[in-house]
Write a structure and sequence with these properties.
Elements (H helix, E strand, L loop, with lengths): L8 E4 L2 E4 L4 H8 L11 E5 L25 H12 L6 E5 L9 H10 L3 E6 L12 H7 L3 E5 L5 H8 L3 H14 L11 E5 L10 H16 L5 E4 L6 H10 L2 H10 L14 E4 L5 E2 L2 H5 L31 H4 L12
Parallel strand pairs: 3-4, 3-9, 4-5, 5-6, 6-7, 7-8
Antiparallel strand pairs: 1-2, 9-10
Helix pairs in contact: 2-3
């Protein structure tokens, strides 16, 4: 693991910044840069910021009052690009609460028709929103992989991060999914959970934490699931604001920078993924999308016909990229090491 000094962090106006080192510099220093895309196998679509929750760590700043929602014409264009990109294997749908977008089920049905693997990044409590009474059955019928947020296996910690009563609803939702076969051996229905640290720390080892989750959720609630993914809290948007209010932004960035691990770079999600915003703009990842760091040379999903020939394109980076490369690494699929 490379060690890089973080003592040049500074505050410019109200915005925390870093004078050096930068992420591209860290890549060059360790001989693993520049960061280039390989073959694109996943299209990740953020269908908007509307959510029935407003979590403290949310890098999207999603919530019940957000009005950014992907319109039908963008969803239809997404399907056209999926159909024109035969190397794509996965449609990864996120938000907000993606299921609250009125075109979520259209995207799922069309991706299923194209033979793609479909991922729904679910907050679990959405199953109990009005109009979502048949959501679990819809996901099961379309063989959608559910990746569900559950930052702890205790009510106190979950409700602290995500709001009062969220843990109880999450357990009900997990039991509902288990009842349909999700997370159970031989069912073909995948249920994975996501852990985010409660504060300004790196996640613990994923394998050990997964064993703890399976033991606690199994013994206490009879819940089964396939995998647990540990994801580092990214120092952007709502979480960055919380860090700044606590006076911990500099120390957290120092933690990330000083734990930069070049061995994680080869498996970074941005190397095989393209992100689409609710408005149709293209980004190298969901984090770049939230920071409005555009993709070099390409602006919107209407500017491309296919994603089949994107290998070798340079990926836009920033200070937040240290979050994906710290320690064991972090991606939408959990740790990288």
């Amino acid at each position: 693991m490379a060690t890089t000094t973080a003592n040049q962090l500074r505050i410019v106006g109200n915005v925390p910044e870093i004078a050096g080192p930068d992420f591209d510099g860290a890549l060059a220093e360790t001989g693993v840069g520049p960061l280039l895309r390989g073959q694109v196998t996943t299209l990740q679509v953020n269908v908007g910021k509307l959510c029935n929750q407003a979590c403290h760590h949310c890098h999207v700043e999603a919530g019940p009052k957000r009005t950014e929602i992907m319109p039908r014409q963008v969803a239809e264009r997404v399907v056209e690009v999926l159909a024109a990109s035969p190397q794509l294997q996965t449609l990864d749908i996120t938000g907000g609460a993606p299921e609250l977008n009125p075109h979520f089920r259209f995207l799922v049905a069309e991706a299923r028709r194209l033979g793609l693997h479909i991922v729904d990044r679910c907050n679990l409590t959405v199953f109990f929103e009005r109009g979502q009474e048949d959501l679990a059955e819809f996901l099961a019928a379309n063989k959608v992989e559910v990746i569900a947020s559950l930052p702890c296996y205790t009510a106190e910690n979950v409700d602290q991060q995500r709001g009062h009563g969220v843990f109880e609803k999450s357990i009900r939702a997990l039991r509902l999914l288990n009842g349909l076969g999700y997370g159970r051996a031989g069912s073909g229905l995948t249920l994975n959970l996501v852990y985010n640290p409660l504060g300004a720390s790196l996640p613990p080892p994923q394998e050990k934490l997964e064993a703890d989750y399976k033991k606690e959720l199994g013994e206490r609630f009879g819940i089964e699931f396939n995998r647990l993914f540990t994801i580092t809290n990214m120092p952007i948007q709502r979480f960055a604001e919380w860090l700044a209010r606590q006076g911990r932004y500099e120390s957290y960035m120092g933690l990330l920078v000083n734990h930069f691990n070049p061995a994680t770079v080869a498996d970074l999600m941005c190397r095989s993924l393209v992100s689409v915003g609710w408005h149709g703009q293209l980004y190298d990842c969901d984090f770049n999308q939230m920071l409005e760091i555009g993709m070099p040379g390409t602006r919107t999903i209407w500017d491309v016909r296919s994603l089949s020939d994107w290998a070798g394109k340079r990926i836009a980076t920033g200070l937040h990229c240290f979050g994906c490369t710290a320690g064991a690494g972090s991606s939408c699929g959990g740790s990288l090491q």
